[in-house]
Protein 1
Amino acid sequence: MNFNSLQYLIYLPIVLILYFILPKKIKNPVLLLASFYFYMCWEPVYALLMLFSIAATYLCGILVEKQALGRKKLWLVLCLVINLSILFFFKYFNFFTDTIGDVFALFGATASLPTLNVLLPVGISFYTFQALGYTIDVYRGDIPAEKNFIDYALFVSFFPQLVAGPIERTGNIVPQLKAPHKFKFANLRDGFLLILWGMMKKVLIADTLAIAVNTVYNAPHDHTGMQLIFATLCFSFQIYCDFSAYSDIARGSAKIMGIELMRNFDFPYGAQSIKDFWRRWHISLSTWFKDYLYFPLGGSRVTKARHCLNIMIVFAVSGLWHGAAMTYVIWGFLHGAYQIIGILINPLREKLYKVIKRNNPILCALRILGTFILVNIAWILFRANSLADAVFIVKRILLIPFNPVSPLSFNTLGLSNHMLVVMLISVLVLVAVDLINRKKPVAEIINSKVWLRYVVYLILLLAIFVFGYYGPGFDPQDFVYFQF
Amino acid sequence: MKKIICEIIAFLLTLTLFLGTTMYLGYFYMPTREQFGATWNMYGEEQENSIDVMFVGSSVAYCDIIPAKIYEETGLTSYIVGAPNMIPGIAYHYLKEALKTQDPELVMLEATSFCFVGISEDDSKVNVGYMPYSLNRLEATFKVAHPSERLGLLFPLYNYHSKWSEYSIGQLFSPRPDCKEDIYAGYTYLDTASPQEEFGPRDYQISDEDFGENMDYLRKIVDLCKDRNIKLELFMVPSCQYVSEELTERISAEAPDIPLTRFNDNFDELGLSLETDYYDFLHLNYSGAKKYTKTLADHIQNNYSIQGHDHDRELWNKRVEFVYTDMEKDGEEK
């Protein structure tokens, strides 16, 4: 059941009504059932897998806290092995065997290795990491083990954030799940606005931009360098709108219930460095890696060489988390390399700041542009169907100065001129809202006046229903991060 | 309290504006429809209570009957309220809708429709989608239309929103191009001739259950006409592949008080040529429709005493003239 589906628009109000009218004692069990129902709308049998993961981490949490059999680390390791094995089996097995096969092929040998024909369970990367984070927190003594199985299971499977995040922390969510929540109009108002904003980003911007992106990236050899650049730019906003839309709808749905999920994006394309970008993009994942991988490796409190290695490990794993393909791994490595280069040239930068003030507007603008370009180069790898395609795309773009100027024909990319104008306006509005949000929450401004709020509702609804990508003849895209 | 009232007013106003705008846009963005049935926008432009004879039926009705010719022969005004592949459920709802603005003295219902089973998604979109917004349309949406089309029928913008770029904002405040008088009065002009070799009954596969459902609608139509004091006749146009006698008798048995005329029974008297007068095995082309319409006009005059309504003579003369200046001329050129 996608967020941008009629089923969800029927499901959500039913769940909300049940949540508010039922007695506190059965609120969470019912919400748990609703969350499992939500998950089972994809592939019912994989709900059992999620249940197994929940049970394993729940038990391990208790055993870690109790230091059963006089061991603490044993249960943590067991938990990690169980969950990561499941993840490896469903997500990485074929990639692993293919990679082994490629290595053998390098030496002229062949390796006959089995491949699995299994569907990737939706959201497995998300709920696995969320559950592992819980166990590690218990091991560290940061939080007590959750004794209430229902509450813990609900923490892992809470439907708004189950399939594509944000990857929440126990300390944030479980107390909220345990607390009583009465219906508050302010929550409904704020939540609805978030959901509407998310729907607009997904149905209007992301899915429409996907037309141009898919046209070009599915046949890169048939397109010019300028068209490849254009499609890459479209992808940068497609993936941002797609992913942030999911987070907005997730946060909005939870907000109506009175539950605050963490913000997952903070105007990432306004970042002035790659390090800054990762403080603003998929914040829940980057903080997860920071807390559970980067810091345990030593973080930055080690030698420079080791620091750089830590960064590379974290980003390589991050790349792998995103997908079982070499393009994702190299994407991760590239972001790691960006950061390492940033560290290495830091002394030069500091010298520059002595000449030009750090907050000089032109310098800031150049840094934002530079970061945006670097991120887009990396997105080529992220979106390309294969490494060969990615290399081809980069080559063709680099050869633009040496080729005769070819007109950028937008109409051949599946988007009409009218739609391009709508996209341009929508993206400008998106950027403006993100910019204002950094100074003052836009929701606060909108909610300050009743008439203003309803005007915004009307505009967003009409934009979605008139310009949106839905209905007969349209092929609505799954949220991009579902495949992770 | 003041805040709550403000909130409620703002909510209702926004909801009204949203629904009103989207329903209007959904209606406006639908492709124009001037022929091949379901031409409700044009029907809506017809002078109220000016039609003497109403023909209801599928494409065999609106391709085979020329109202301008009937007017020329008899002075009686007529209109074809048709829809592609019109099943009895659609016929009922169409008649119900049509009688909101017209009070014909005679309704002639093309009975081949009673052999049709089921409605496709495309036909639902057209047949119900072009009906005026009304409770009748709502009923047709849930009782007759294909279930998968219901969302688009309730909310037309769902089907047609992508057409927004074809219109300027100014055009949205003008009437739709097909909101005009129908020079054909519901007829669809077909000029191609396709020589026919086979002539015989068509094997309509219809289960007892489906037939029963169709007859339920026939009874509803009969009751509707009775309530409005309208004479009703069932008829079947002369097709190369026609409804069998057995099926015709079954239909007739369900409404024994309603006359049923099979024009195929007197095929030789119609003067139709299998070589030149047929568009395909079911439909007449213009040449065939001309001949058949004359027979139909005679049939109406001989069997019914119709007073006639006040009507726009200028319009009807224009329609008759159109036959000669356009349809005839087009045929001659060919």
Note: The longest strand of chain B covers residues 231-236.
Protein 2
Amino acid sequence: MTTTILSSQNEALMREDLITPIHDHDDRYNHLLAHHGGSTWRVSPEEAGALALLTSPYKDLGDPSTECTEDGPKNRGFGRRTLLKGALAGFGALAMASLEPRYAFAATPTGEILICIYLRGGFDGISAVVPVTDSNYYAARPTIGVKEANTTRLAGTSFGLNNHMQKHLAPMIAAGQAAFVVGAGNPGVTRSHFEDMANMERSAPANMRSGWLGRYLAANSSTSGTFRAITMGNRAALSLSTSSFETLAMANIKEFDINSWDGQWRTSVLKGVDTLYKNAGGKATLQMSKILDAVGQLAPLRTSSYTPAGGAVYPASPFGKQLMDVARIIKANMGLEVACVDLGDWDMHKGLGAPTVETDWFPRKALDLSQGLAAFRADLGDLWNKVTVVTMSEFGRRVEENGDLGVDHGHGNLMLVAGGGINGKVYGNMPALSKGNLVEGDVPITTDYRLVLTDILKNRFGASPTVLGNVFPSYTPPALLGIAKPATLTTRSTTTAPGVITAFRG
Amino acid sequence: MPNPYVPKLQFVSTPEWHLARRVAIAPTQKLANEIKALGVNAWLDKQLAWKNIPDPVMYGLIKDHFSATEMTAKDYTTATGNQPWHTSGLLRRSIFLRHRYSERYLHDQMVEFFSDLIYISASGKSDSLVCDYNRAVLRPHALGKFSDMLHAALTHAALIVYLDNQGSTKTDPNENLGRELLELHTVGVGNYTEADVRNSTLLLTGHSFDWNTKSYVYKSYNHYVGPLKIMGFTHANSIAAGGPAVLQAYAYYLALHPATARRIATRLYTRFVEDILPTGPSPEAAALISSLASTYLSSNSSMGPVLKKLFTSTVFKNSVGNKWRRPQETFATMAKGLGPNRYVPNNVPVISSPYDSGAYGWRLENAGHMTREWPAVNGYPDVGDLWLSSNCLRETTNAGEAFVWRWDKEVAYSQALKDTFRVKDGDNALVTARRLTKELTGFTWAESSIAVIASFLESTGMKLVTNTSVVTNVDRNLTFALRQILASPYFMVR
């Protein structure tokens, strides 16, 4: 790899330990700050590049500040091999970037909304989209293999959709709005839950602390309204990490409140907390402003009961409730662009279950997932046309069933992409699951998960190659699969002005 | 150096309050007074000799409700009617009760410190074994030598099961423990190669678990035999029966490795001094960490000398107000700070509903910090950033409301707030606000924030205060004012 001035500047911008892009409201005043040797000073892109060349990115692998994060130990590198070689990962699209400054924004709002559903634990893709014509599959899973009779053939393919999913997904499949990508995954998978999930969510070299969604949001705008990106959960998803701003995490709408007696004292309590936190400055002020703003904006939703539209019946599960809350926020026009939702507990090492028994582990969860998605679609009505849902899991599972009627960690998996602007069909490829075709006994990864996400970001969200290069550094996508239809550019109006949180400058 | 999360606040504190806030999970004015009376060195010595501290309240609670936490796994299996996993619920509860009632402050703090380093989740594979792990590994060695703790952990059923080593054999090795031992428990990433992980794994083969006795057992027939090299450690490992001796040598090698020393020193720094920013430690921080690592090595990994050096250092003294609290610390301090109280469980005997951690436990869960329930193998993070998430901050702000109104009947207070805090109608509002904030946080607050508290004392926050404002409607207004104190960023800092 030649070390041109351009690629060193690109590298500098990836060195979050070294360079912080400062985004001003007025893009003319965007600039770079360098941090090194205990000092911070303003640098030009050229100086940043030179500094990056001088300092080694992998020097302090034992960096204590990155010891523990919410998704596991850091400094793993994007794949162990990359880390231990100590080489700079190939920069892919970055090396082909134009001379346009990487931190200038080209916001191209399409008004689209992305829902990322993280199926944590290792979703068993081949129990969902079943290779019903492959005798190898049934030979490897004599007990837990899903019989063809318990599936519904996906038209024009050799796959059958598990009926526990077909049951609820039928309408959206019939409408051509559900895409199934087989053999999808993260090439850097190591079969470790927390490492692989973290790698998938950060999608970056070792020293980048941000997540792919965080980089996408930051690349499109230096500001973020309170509800622009939310995580349904206790803390913001790792994918949303960015040094530019914080994103909201909430367990549910109903409880997202500052508890207080009602009436006049509620106002003074909230005002008191607001003042105390405004006196503090920094991240604390930003977070509390965001919380109070969200509490205020959610008040009408909190205090009213909700009946899903379109006859939608959400499953009575935490997942169902969270999807319903997301739907409410979308319908309330609060400026939502990205929502992350977890549906975990897929780690079926034991007792994956019999396909005919609805209460068994996989069937139960497959029902939850598909019923939730179907209800979400029905509830949204026309708004579904602006929504794209994508599922991700840290890895698939082994082809061969184990001694405990379960399956251990694997590689290739299924990604489901659904939405009003999706070209519904089966994508990717999965070879016959004979031992010779498997990777260490696993379904091979034939489609990089980033290709699917790139497809969605480019086609639905209008992301430029520059932005995509930021979002997925060290990745050059091959030809897109065409999963997502190009969206028309529209601006989305909001009924309330979103609370604007400016970049935290410390 | 200002606290990076609340850069506009100045933190003014006495040295004894500063030490109390850092050492104790739930510091109080009373504790600060005790430190002042004894002097820092004498108090630290007292805390280090933890077994000599009488601790009557906690002793009573263990005896009355949590005796299982002092039994071996075999015995508590019998005591729970062959449902040993119930003890995980008892363990979690007993820990947060220690935070509220125990006087062995430094010991409790260090037990949690090590629980996050050699982490085993209370739920999951080792749920029948974590209670014994806490008793046999964490508590005895938390203020002793790390080498002893590491070896004890590696030969304890809980860790072996948690990281899947019981089935790791010479023909079918499982790398989980072999890897995490290097990555999480000792030297850390960047100090070993994949070949080292492989050898580490082979070394650990045979170290297994007996379900019947619920204890560690060595199965020599599963042990890989042959020369081993892991970083600078080599061993001929020439007989199957020699596995335990090889493990012991390896454990002590790792515990006393300079990279381990540096890593533990850095974690102690993060726990007790300040978060290290992504740009790296300051020169003073680096110097202290280096010094702590040296002391660690020269004292054979003893926590006593390392901790004393840390708490008497200039860097420590100058780090007032630099750490952001985590929910276990915040809630324990709230519960304790609001007055003398006792634990009165909803259900007696507690074993009848082992997982019922009450409203207090529910609050910890909602804030993402239930004792020993971090979902990954690397233990709870200790960087303020992550505890400032919107949901966690909101939960914490709300917790104050629950505590001041005393909704949780399991926390039985013996005094009305106005008696605990000696406040009555007619007291000067600003003077009272300054006193209350100082008693609860140990910081001298800025007047702009004092004014908020005083306004609640006078008018439930409806009017701006003046120098002559007085407390009115003390029962209501004091409660509201205390809630504001607990909800303030000053309270979130230790």
Note: The radius of gyration of chain B is 24 Å.
